Amino acid sequence: MYLRIDPVTGELSLEEPDDFSRFHLEVPGNRSPEEVAALLQRLDVGRAVEGDPDRMWISVDAVQHLSAGAVGEDWLSGFEGMLAYARSKGFLDGPGTHVRAHVVRAAPS
Questions:
Q1: pTM given for the model
Q2: Which of 32, 56, 79, 90 lies 20 to 30 Å from 48, alpha-carbon distance?
């Protein structure tokens, strides 16, 4: 699964929510890390990873909110499994409220 920032509207969407084998944030190629972090903060869904412009912290609650109406009943157990794996690799913040996502820059369309 991954989150995508629309290059025109700036809206955030959850893509391929049933793919628990990957997690990233797709951003328009022309957005700076500071712009991406500011957008995530404005939407109240994430923040920058200190000292790493290629990674962002994404709110677990935001991912669950974005999944509403787009996933089946068993989605939550798969997501929780993904988070358990993320925790084992150090990809969750201390309180477990945010998961670290690497930033993928989309080519201009």
A1: 0.93
A2: 79
